[in-house]
Amino acid sequence: MDAGRRTILHLDLDAFFCSVEELRDPSLIGKAFAVGGSPDGRGVVSSCSYAARKFGVRSAMPMAQAIRLCPGLLVVSHGREGYRDASQRVMERLQDLSPKMEQISIDEAFVDISEHDVDPFSLAQQLQRSIKADLGLPCSVGVASNKLMAKIATEVGKSGISNSVGRIQAAAKEGSPSAICLVPHGEETVFLAPLPAGMLWGVGPKTAERLAELGITTIGDIAALTEVDLSRRFGEHGRGLWRHAHGIDNREIVTEHVAKSISQEQTFARDVRDGDVLRKLLRDQSRSLSKQLIDDGVCGTVIRIKIRWPDFTTLTRQLSMSTPTDSSETIYSMGIKLFDRVWTPGKPVRLLGLAVGGLTVPQQLNLWDNRPAQRAEQDRRVEEALSKVRERLGDSAVKRARDL
């Protein structure tokens, strides 16, 4: 890699759930098995061993179909402990490489290794060996100038596709691929050219079908078209296809993600039947949620309630709003409305929770009439003032009139 340019590493843990299960039960090593739901119901395959893949078993396949393809398939129930812990140990290893680390799923992450003054291919080999030796988990790695190319490099390495441009550590013939693939700077378009069009981000089944109708089967075929031609045929999506086919991706590593929702919930030591107690809890939860929203500088458009009965039956109900809010009064009133829809007076409750979703940065909602925005700002200031008083003097220090 050329000095001074971005170098992004993409790591993908090979058959992650299966690898964790093999650590737990070494007798599974080398056997055809799948982690997922029961074949008697609507269970699907979450992950399958490479021995099972030889029979055509794939992730997201109905488990019943997987067993028909591989009659001797062993089914390991999904949800065992250890997956998240194993993932966290790997992510900590990546953060040791660089604080610019973006986890995109439980078994995948990007790392910006531009500051490392070493051969990136050797660095990838060292990382792969250490994760296998110390944590017992096989992984594949892609290295390139951006996230798009690094991800595709990993896929090329794992698939065993030969490419004269990339520097590839051959995939294993048996077991996990444990592949490494590096795309040299400046060679992105040439590297992509012979690959199937379906390997390009943005090319789903429908787009691939339309491209095939035009005689376009490789990424190189896409790159051969002009940006204007692609945008004429596919709209704004066509511009993205043109950029991706040329290996262009300017996205930065995102080290923090804004939560999609925040929530508060409480499981009672003893089931609660008292409506006043339950409503007071919703009031307290709405205040806590409002404070968190204000502290984070965001508002929400969805209010959701969660209630669990003594038999562990759990209901969730939600309401959407056209106007984003961080007001505890709004959150509480919507929560009470949902609560009254599902709770019958006297019915025991095991758990009660409240959540705010659809988080967004607040902005003035009406450009021509600013009265709603002024009212919202007044409410915000009241909430901030009440929150500060309660934080200093306790929750009971100040109350709204309706709470008395």
Calculate the mean pLDDT score and round it: 87
| Form type | globular
Give the CA-CA distance, first to last residue. Answer: 68 Å
User: What's the main sheet like?
Assistant: 6 strands, mixed
Provide the number of structural domains. Answer: 4
Give me the number of helical elements.
14
Radius of gyration: 26 Å
CATH architecture of the largest domain: 2-Layer Sandwich
How many beta-strand segments? 13
Helix content: 40-55%
The fourth-level CATH homologous superfamily of the largest domain is DNA polymerase, Y-family, little finger domain
CATH class descriptor of the largest domain: Alpha Beta
Q: Please identify the oligomeric state.
A: single chain
Elements, N to C (H/E): EHEEHHEHEEHEHEEHHHHHEHEEHEH
Strand content: 15-25%
Spans where pLDDT lies below 50 across 5 or more residues? 363-377
CATH topological fold name of the largest domain: Dna Ligase, domain 1
Question: Which sequence of strands runs across the widest sheet?
Answer: 5-6-1-7-9-8
Secondary-structure-derived class = alpha+beta
Structure commentary:
It is a single chain. The protein has 404 residues and is of the alpha+beta class. It folds into 4 domains: 8-15 and 83-191, Reverse transcriptase/Diguanylate cyclase domain (Alpha-Beta Plaits, 2-Layer Sandwich), CATH 3.30.70; 17-77, MutS, DNA mismatch repair protein, domain I, CATH 3.40.1170; 199-245, 5' to 3' exonuclease, C-terminal subdomain (DNA polymerase, domain 1, Orthogonal Bundle); 261-403, DNA polymerase, Y-family, little finger domain (Dna Ligase, domain 1), CATH 3.30.1490. It contains 14 helices and 13 strands. The strands form 3 sheets. It has a 6-stranded mixed beta sheet with strand order 5-6-1-7-9-8. A hairpin with an 8-residue loop joins strand 2 and strand 3. Mean pLDDT is 87; it is low at 363-377.
